[in-house]
Amino acid sequence: MWYLKLWRRFVILGLARTVEYRLNFLFSLITGLAELALAVLAFVIMFRYTNRVSGWSLAEVLMLAGLYKVAEGLIGFQIAPNMLAISGYIRTGEMDFILLSPVSSRFLVSTRTVALPALADVLAGLILIVYAGDRANVQWTIVGLAEAATLLLCGLILLYSVWFFTVTFAFWLVQLESLDTMFYSLFETARYPISFFKGLVRAVLIFGFPVAFVTTFPAQALLGTLQAAWLPVGAVMALLALWGTQRFWAHAVRHYSSASS
Question: What predicted TM-score, i.e. pTM, was given to this entire model?
Fold first, then answer.
């Protein structure tokens, strides 16, 4: 499939940049491990005088923290570099050339840049998941792993769609830095199980800014405590989000005035 071949070319270019700046990758790995160690320490302190918080043990929360690190790494690898660049394409006029390309403009603006050093976070997160999962007596079944991976994918698609929806406003607005900052601030809530939140906040974290699908629900799938309905709900939400953001992107492109005009 030519889309896959084009994306592979983007990855190769990203690898070339990483090789050119090898110390940057090492620094990213050290930084990611340090951030993970601080997160683990915070949870250890939280559970110092109790065995469970809102139904979660320390080992289970640490496994969720590992999932957060994996999601953070995947977002940093593919989603964030491209979302942060879209408004610049519009301001500088580079969007004109993207729209003239025979390839889907959404595909190009969403995939043309990768940040391979972010994969260090994915590796660190996977290590923590395995360690904490063993401490939590997780049964590593194919079904559980498949459910967790599917929910994580749905969650990433949903978060990508939320961010893509906001950056599409760059066709009409000049500065979107505050919205990008807001995305990362809200994403921080994925560090914690949604049972730590109540009422409207919990509903928002499931359906509005659906971080529950990247950490809480995959963790529950691995633990065998996931409510079966969340898997099809996540899949339907992800498909609707992709469809809705595509319609909005197409509308914005139709009303786009060239930066050079």
Answer: 0.89
